[in-house]
Automatic annotation (TrEMBL), chain A:
PANTHER family: ARABINOSE-BINDING PROTEIN-RELATED, BLR3389 PROTEIN. This is Extracellular solute-binding protein. It holds the Pfam family SBP_bac_1. It comes from Arthrobacter gengyunqii. Gene3D superfamilies: Periplasmic binding protein-like II.
Automatic annotation (TrEMBL), chain B:
SUPFAM superfamilies: MetI-like. Belongs to the binding-protein-dependent transport system permease family. One of its GO terms (cellular component) is plasma membrane. Residues 89-299 form the ABC transmembrane type-1 domain. The chain crosses the membrane at residues 32-59, 89-114, 126-146, 166-185, 231-252, 278-300. It is found in: Cell membrane. GO terms for biological process: transmembrane transport. It is a multi-pass membrane protein. Coiled coil: none annotated. Residues 1-27 are annotated as: Disordered. This is Sugar ABC transporter permease. Residues 1-18 have a biased composition (Polar residues). Keywords: Cell membrane, Membrane, Transmembrane, Transmembrane helix, Transport. It comes from Arthrobacter gengyunqii.
Amino acid sequence: MKNTTNWFRPAAAATSAVVLGLSLAACSSGGSEASNRPENEVHVLVYGDAGNTVEQAMVDQFNETSDVKVVLDTIPGAEYQSKLQTIIDTDSAPDIFFNWGGGSITDYVEADLLMPLDDFIAEDPQLKDAFLPSVFDAAVVDGKAYGIPMRGTQPVMLFSNEEVLASAGIDGAPETWDDLLADVEKLKAAGVTPIALGGADEWPTLMWVEYVYDRVAGPELFEAALGGDPSVWESDESREALGMLKDLVDTGAFGNNYQSVKFTDGGSASLLSSGQAGFELMGSWAYSTHRDAAPEFAANSLGYNEFPTVDGGKGDPANLVGNTNNFYSVLANTRYPDTVRDFLKLMYSDEFVQQQVGIGNLPTTTNTGDFLDQATNPDYAKYQLSLVENAPSFQLSWDQAYPPSATPAIHGAMADFFSGRIDEDGFIAAMQGL
Amino acid sequence: MTTLNPPRSASPEGSTANRPARGGREHKTRPGFLWTLPATVFFSLFAVVPLIAVVLLSFSSWRGIGDPKFVGLENWQELAGDSVMIQSLWLSLLFIVLGVLTQTPISILLGVWAAGEQRNRAVLSAIYFVPLLLSSAAISVLWRALLDPNFGIPGQLSWLFGDGNLFGNQSTAIAVIIFVGMWQFTPFHTLIYQGAAKSVPAVLYQAAEVDGAGRVRAFFSITLPQMRNSIITSVILMVVGGLTTFETVLILTDGGPGTATTITAFYMYEQAFQRFDFGVGAAVALVLVVVATAISLIMVKVSGYDKMRSTMEGL
């Protein structure tokens, strides 16, 4: 015992001193200056998925001629936004990062973390002019451009199983809201779920809310709410839209178990492709989802259409909702702004557009149309592009137009309204409380 | 049964002690304070320091960018008027109670059975323990797929599951989470009860048999009372597990439908890592700490766990 104590006391003291010292050092390492950024490297952070092959190819090509090397970092799917938020105010922050424009970057703009790109655009006007204006504007905050479009646009469309529609005696896609209600009745009579809906994921439900609000009240209502005028949620148009949605749910358009169905595990897509549902409202990526999971269905009986018009509604029938585009934004304290600018120029190069079209994305450069014959499904690509080009308004998804902090509240209020746990007033109060 | 420590006075050290005073002798045999130092250091670093940081954070506004801003009681006032917060506490308590009520009887029966000598017992026991080897995330994904309303079990057995909307309304969503928890953790508690049942002295059963007690009587009069400490241990573990249930809820229901299965641990995650409101998230975490401490104190008092009376007394 005595011997043990002799060595034990100093050893324990030393151990605790080291541990405490390390932890103090770890605490004080934050908040240093940009000089800690790596030399001769520009880091580009993107959402990790199949699209990364094109991005890596562009990076490799760029590095052949550049002294400052570009490094592509990826974060897989669902964790992207929270991981980004965790590192963006540290030395590990990327120089350039992928985002959805709108609310996904406003917090960073307010914290002065992002570089306005207006100087770049003044030097090279193509950084703005080469893109469709309605798309480019989605990353403009307080009149300054904070993002250059990258990847592609993803409008929400009404997909259908044409075989199911035909066997239920439905001739073509519904043009008006009343057509849709009539089709729902026919599909119910035919014994299938009229509309597949991944209600457990919540964001697919939001697509219905966004379109009905747009058709009834026009995009102005949501823009006003987003701009800080919550009174619009109490308007007659708002109540009319909610009433229409409630009718649609109550009539059984989505079946009885839509709240247990997910899109993300292939549930609602399978309902459509296996002939158990007639319609599904989904983003343009639904085509590649079906092509992977049910290639025969995607090739033969997948129909795609615009959202129906609403009689007497204020919204233009050509308006779109969805993901306007993805954007590259730039950190204000980047060490190599010239390299960053040169890299961003690739986003409107013919080669980039060509490669994106090749993997099924739809870039929003003004010359995209020239390359669509090389797409996997040229008809589908051309149809999508015409929708985007002709849309007077392209509303960014509500949960991305608001900052991430609002997403759980929007989703919760909507899910509760659809299931009847809250009524119109409850929904209105929840949206006013954002 | 006869391995109780010999009384202190009988120890050889007692007779050879330099100082006859009782206090002096005890001082010598007690382990020195220094032995607690490593544990104290690590406990401070990984429990006390973070806890202090969480307290400070709960009085500030921080979105993960820049420095936290002191806002006083703002986060707490927000929580006090938040119906979801109150609901989440009730839900957490409901989850604990339902978890204990479903897991305890089954684990006791299985554990007592597994402690026996039946044929194939070892094989069946091994099968029971399989769920214990899987991660919670894997188990949740598995059951989410099995219970898919259209392509899973409910789609095939509509006479039993109706429209299959298990995740779509509150009572069935809670039932699914409780069921999956039971499926996952019963093997663990069975293991505890198996050990406890095995350590019941056979002489008690022999005596009971002589007195004419049947198997049922023996179970209630001997096995259960002898397992008292194990039951308390097992229930405390269930309570702690119930309070920290998180990944099952995240994957199975994502707190939904709406907020119908948003328990406190999930609500903390939602506030901090989905809304990026770390101040409110920290406040929720503190509420959880207080509730958990209160529950465990009450349990220790009520159950007599602090005394840990031996079931071997009188043998």
